Amino acid sequence: MIGYALRRLAVTVPVLVVISFGTFWAAGEISSPAAQLTLNPRISPEAKQAYIELLGLDRPLGVQYGKWLGNFVTGDFGTSLVRNGQDVWPFVERALANTLLLVAAAVSLSLLIGLAVGTISAVRRGSLWDYTSVGVSFLGISIPVFWLGLMLQLFFGLYLANWLGVGPPLLPTAGIYSPGRQGFDLLDRVRHLILPTMALSLQLVAVYSRYMRSSMLEVMGADYIRTARAKGLRESRVVVRHGMRSALVPVTTLVAIDIGQLVGGLIVTERVFQYPGMGLLFLDALNSGDYTILLPVVMITAVAVFALNLVADLLYGVLDPRVRLGRGALRHV
Amino acid sequence: MSSSARPERSGVQVLSPTEPLLSVRDLRTEIDTENGTVTATDGVSLDLYEDEVLAVVGESGCGKTVLALSILGLLPRRTGRIVGGQVLLRGEDLAQATPERLREIRGAEIAMIFQDALTGLHPLRRVGEQIVEMIRAHERVPRAVARRRAAELLDLVGIPAPARRADSFPHELSGGMRQRVMIAMAVALEPKVLIADEPTTALDVTVQAQILETLARIARDLNGSILLITHDFGVVASAADRVMVMYAGKSVEQGQVRKVYQRPRHPYTAGLLAAMPRIDDTPGDLLRIAGTPPSLIRPPPGCRFAPRCGFATDVCGVESPETRVWPPGSDVSVACHHSERIGPAP
């Protein structure tokens, strides 16, 4: 399995090179740090030329890219072109940590609710509970996250406090810290996490519960479930130990792939809630042409997608002993 | 349902030798299908005595599997139900039992062996663990003890290196080994009744014989009875004491295997026996019963076999034949208007 993992990683390297070069080239085409100098009348053409040479922007694109790549793989992410030449890594690191926290909160909450809802729906197929959860799920999948985010902000940040006649908003609607607060405050962090988590979770719960329901329905019709009942097991044990044990295998891989995509894919949610994660950093860097920040953000997103796809495959092998990951398996990459 | 009607738990009640262990009385079972509701068993009765193997034989769709599932209340929950009759285990009606009481009986007093052990065993759980679970669902024993017993059971059914094999997953075993695991699990609690639903159908012929032998040996050792569901008359001949022939949801003939084979009293039984290929047949000799079984959604009036029967007269198309003992004084019962006219298999 380790050999399989290494081969899979080797396959991703050329893809990462293509992605990074594409991003590098596109970022240079969209904007240039030198453009700002051009617009500034107080900078002489000579000073501008000197700056361009300092940054190496006069060299061929391939050479520029090669230099960046060489530094990148040795862990030197460079300095920001816009943020007064500060090191890039601390920005990226903070954004990544914030995003991972939000993803972890939303995914665990959604799993907890989604798996339970899906399982109960499958066991009680055709019941009021089942129809209601199907309806709510479709709603959850259909509602755009930006609109849901705005509604949550209005409700918890404004209306609810007004109706209840209490003073300050019940929940903060943006950022991760209350203004003016010093140091680490767990409760404050958690309160700031609630609304973005809710906005994100509605959709995830909808997807996970649908997936769990269909997976459970398939499993509960299997012969070995009948065997389990014929053994005289309690129905709860039949459902959990025999049914869910099997139904969770495909759901787990789906969730693993999902997490990879969420790491770089929270642009809308983070924008609505001004949540300083990878999505927000990506938007800022894109708008300011700060490609030394843009590149690591894109690269980390790509690596996360690849890595969690790999994790999903490896998990399949762990959860289902019939799956053997070997040479043949690589063909499906 | 009421507890007063329920006999004491196993062992306390003394059975007279003529009293059946398991008795199915006039069982009617409905299954919903896409095309309508099927009466899968339509007034089926059978008696299973101690220490005997009763085979239920019939072609696909005749209701034999539904009969087996009905006994333990294992019909598909949404689409199947018992609509009439009784399933009496030592006088206790399982058709009226509470889910909790049924759960107690399943595995411990009546255990089941299913046709395909590859799909019948949980694919993601080790076989030893599946046997341990069976034991611990009914007895309060420590896991280590249950594990030891599981290994002993695997040994009993003829699995080599049982302690090591207990850690195998079903897909790592051969078809015959898997079916042995299924048997080991079924006999773990020494049930009085084993229901084996086509236990050898998914296996090679050579393995079939071994499995039947194992099943018979263990049943003998446990003083248990077997209800053997099959479509294979060869299996019936080699493994069963008595046989019940089913056709289109009804029992058509019941009796000692030897007597029924020597002289079938129902034209369907006679036809099936005649249709069995023999080693000395010349090619093209194979007989078959013309036509196909009727739909059980709206079965025809009268005898269900009449449209395919060479002996049928006017009465057969109108009046459903009663089950009667024939010849009088024998232990063969048959549901045919013309039993006296049916000869031995040609």
Characteristic terms for this protein:
heterodimer; A: 333 residues; MetI-like fold; flat; B: 346 residues; alpha/beta; Rossmann fold; eight-stranded mixed β-sheet; four-stranded antiparallel β-sheet; 12 strands; globular
Write the layout of secondary structure elements.
The complex is a heterodimer of chains A (333) and B (346).
Chain A (H helix, E strand, L loop, with lengths): L1 H29 L2 H7 L5 H11 L5 H13 L15 H35 L4 H15 L2 H20 L21 H35 L2 H8 L4 H30 L2 H6 L5 H11 L2 H29 L14
Helix pairs in contact in A: 1-13, 5-6, 5-8, 5-10, 5-12, 6-8, 7-8, 8-10, 9-10, 10-13, 12-13
Chain B lengths: L21 E12 L2 E13 L4 E5 L6 H8 L8 E10 L2 E2 L5 H7 L4 E4 L3 H4 L6 H12 L4 H14 L5 H4 L9 H12 L6 E5 L7 H18 L2 E6 L2 H7 L2 E6 L2 E7 H6 L4 H9 L48 E2 L7 E2 L12
Parallel strand pairs in B: 3-8, 3-9, 6-7, 7-8
Antiparallel strand pairs in B: 1-2, 1-4, 4-5, 9-10, 10-12, 11-12
